[in-house]
Design brief:
By secondary structure, the protein is mainly alpha-helical. It has helices at residues 3-13, 23-43, 48-71, 73-83. It is built from four helices and no strands.
């Protein structure tokens, strides 16, 4: 992911100016990386090291989403809708 794309995601999902660590930003960045790796895995089926990394990213995103759903259900639903995730 290039710097411009990352900055765009941080500005879109950040709760305030310069917010890079909120749950929404972390989930959005993980989703972007997961989408990129999914495309890579479609072209390189036998890249097992990247496959393991992809599974770790999916697990991390899942844990963050579970935390957000316990913390604030409204923010959780807004994030799921804006990212296009199903849950």
């Amino acid at each position: 992911m290039d710097k411009e794309k990352k900055t765009e995601i941080i500005n879109k999902y950040g709760l305030s100016e310069g917010d890079t660590g909120s749950t929404e930003v972390q989930v959005a960045l993980l989703t972007e990386r997961i989408n990129q790796l999914t495309g890579h895995m479609a072209a390189n089926r036998h890249d097992y090291h990247s496959q393991r990394g992809l599974l770790k990213l999916v697990g991390q995103r899942r844990r963050l989403l579970a935390y957000l759903s316990k913390l604030d259900v409204g923010r959780y639903h807004n994030l799921i809708a804006s990212l296009g995730l199903r849950k």
